[in-house]
């Protein structure tokens, strides 16, 4: 889920570290020790840019506001900032069957600490498997001081940082994961993020909207509850995030609007939502690459909107950028390492 555009070049996500290490070995037939840091860094940049293009699903082109304004068919759904209020009844939980069995007693009763624990253990589960697989390879940088010293500084820093993280969380997370069926563990992560988001944690809300973690199996009793909770809360989380100028929410929501099937489609995001979020992110992009990528997405969404829609949505995006986002650019931290990386 992760990471989205050009900022990955400056703040490499750990998922990209995995891809880089594997790519270096399978394509070059050489270990990292055989490559100097300059060539690794160049390859990192190339892979990061390629990953951004793949995530967008299209070749980026420079598209300005004028090109994005192409009248077409009227979209039926209301834009996300006009979403109807959620009923004031009790918060929708994924399912009453999701309890926090297996969580340490010190965090089980505290929603904020529960979310932190669940998020950290989701990250632990992901990277522990990868690091254990790599540990058998003598050319793995963490097995070779020479290879580690020759690695690009950013890559070396991420490898060491993740290794320390795994050591720090090994005992608590392994106990939970070993004692908890995987579908229940997946459901607990989403339930913890939902409850933290309902209490105002914007990063938890963004990760929930992004659907950043492995989901319960569709045949499990937890999946239907997750779908119900996502449909009930995702648009409201996005609306709240726009009101306070949350870039993580904008990027998570924009990714959700691009999904064609699965959990994120249950929120009912429309072409208007996609256009608004793309135009807002376009204004918040720190360079021409981001502007062109988001501009291209806005142009695609514009095909399903009328000229009146585009005028209103452009004004709304500009107002949000100036007033709620205070002309701040998309931060690196909001794009990378927010949920599982």
Polypeptide structure, described:
- The chain has helices at residues 14-28, 37-56, 65-68, 105-108, 111-134, 145-150, 153-179, 182-198, 202-210, 223-244, 247-258, 271-284, 288-302, 307-324, 332-335.
- The chain is mainly α.
- It is globular, with a radius of gyration of 21 Å.
- The model is unreliable at 1-78 and 82-90 (pLDDT under 50).
- This is Sel1 repeat family protein.
- It comes from Luteimonas galliterrae.
- The chain crosses the membrane at residues 40-57.
Summarize the structure.
The chain contains 15 helices and no strands. The protein is an all-alpha fold. The longest helix is centred in the middle third of the chain and has 27 residues.
- Stretches where pLDDT falls below 50 for ≥5 residues? 1-78, 82-90
Please give the share of residues in helix: 55-70%
- Note the main sheet: none
Structure classification: mainly alpha
N-C termini distance: 9 Å
Strand content: under 5%
- Residue-averaged pLDDT: 76
The helix-strand sequence is HHHHHHHHHHHHHHH
**How many structural domains can be distinguished in the coordinates?**
1
Globular, elongated, flat, extended or rod-shaped: what is the shape? globular
- Number of DSSP E strands: 0
Helical segment count? 15
- Radius of gyration computed on alpha carbons: 21 Å
Organism: Luteimonas galliterrae
Keywords: Membrane, Transmembrane, Transmembrane helix
Protein name: Sel1 repeat family protein
């Amino acid at each position: 889920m992760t990471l989205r555009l050009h900022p990955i070049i400056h703040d490499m996500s750990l998922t990209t570290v995995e891809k880089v290490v594997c790519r270096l070995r399978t394509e070059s037939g050489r270990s990292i020790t055989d490559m100097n840091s300059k060539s690794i860094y160049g390859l990192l940049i190339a892979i990061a840019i390629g990953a951004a293009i793949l995530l967008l699903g299209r070749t980026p082109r420079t598209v300005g506001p004028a090109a994005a304004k192409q009248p077409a068919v009227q979209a039926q759904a209301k834009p996300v900032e006009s979403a109807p209020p959620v009923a004031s009844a009790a918060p929708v939980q994924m399912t009453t069957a999701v309890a926090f069995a297996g969580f340490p007693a010190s965090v089980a009763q505290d929603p904020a600490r529960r979310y932190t624990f669940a998020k950290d253990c989701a990250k632990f589960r992901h990277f522990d498997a990868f690091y254990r697989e790599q540990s058998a390879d003598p050319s793995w940088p963490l097995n070779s001081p020479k290879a580690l010293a020759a690695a690009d500084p950013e890559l070396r820093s991420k490898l060491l940082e993740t290794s320390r993280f795994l050591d720090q969380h090994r005992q608590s997370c392994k106990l939970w994961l070993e004692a908890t069926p995987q579908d229940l563990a997946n459901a607990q992560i989403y339930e913890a993020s939902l409850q933290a988001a309902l209490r105002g944690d914007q990063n938890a809300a963004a990760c929930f909207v992004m659907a950043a973690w492995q989901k319960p199996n569709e045949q499990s009793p937890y999946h239907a509850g997750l779908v119900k909770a996502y449909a009930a809360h995702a648009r409201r989380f996005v609306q709240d995030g726009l009101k306070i100028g949350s870039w993580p929410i904008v990027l998570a929501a924009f990714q959700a609007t691009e999904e064609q099937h699965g959990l994120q489609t249950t929120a009912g995001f429309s072409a208007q939502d996609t256009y608004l979020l793309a135009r807002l992110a376009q204004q918040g992009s720190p360079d021409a690459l981001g502007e062109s990528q988001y501009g291209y997405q806005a142009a695609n969404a514009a095909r399903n909107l009328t000229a009146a829609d585009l005028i209103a949505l452009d004004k709304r995006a500009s107002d949000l950028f100036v007033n709620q986002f205070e002309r701040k650019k998309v931060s690196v931290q909001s794009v990378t390492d927010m949920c599982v990386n």
